[in-house]
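Pipeline run #58 for the internal structure catalog. This entry was flagged by the ingest filter as a single-chain record with no existing model, so it goes straight to prediction. Upstream metadata was stripped on purpose; only the residue string is passed forward. Reviewer on rotation: M.T. Logging verbosity set to normal.
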Amino acid sequence: MPRHRSSPEPSPASWDGIGFLLSQVASHSSARFAAGLEPLGLKPSHAGILRVIGEADGSSQQSLGERLGVFASRLVGLIDDLESRGFVERRDNPSDRRSYALHLTPAGREALAQISGLSRRLEGEVFASLDASERARMADFLRRIAAQQGLRPGVHPGIGKSGGPDSEPAPPRRKARRREPGPA
């Protein structure tokens, strides 16, 4: 009769390490944030863009892309989406006729207020087990780690990447076929 091996218990290092725990809490928090945005018809990348435009109303698309680290081709589509929903408007840039200045509309400001409320509520819920002093220390630790890792302050690193927190998966890349040299 064959012996059945039971799977070994995971070692504490695999499920109790700081990296795993941080990833676990971040994933849980991100999923809750995305779910909270659904009634507004928004995705996390929209929320990040609205926040940055709200901080620098009248910025150009180029400066917004640089601030977020987002490729222009991805940013144009996200801004088009926000504009079609009435949250953002493009206006002629008075200092550069070749570009547009981005502004929040009244609906965009209202959406941003709702996003801010959602963020505060979720932060309170997710970190309810920590007192104010512990939350402040946690925030300080995370800011130090983010700075040491070269992350942009206030910018989710997945916002501009294919496969980011709310983008469609990138199509598989096809290998370019090598052309054989023809006869000389």
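catalog note: Strands lie at 88-92, 100-104.
catalog note: The longest strand covers residues 88-92.
status: ready for reviewer M.T.
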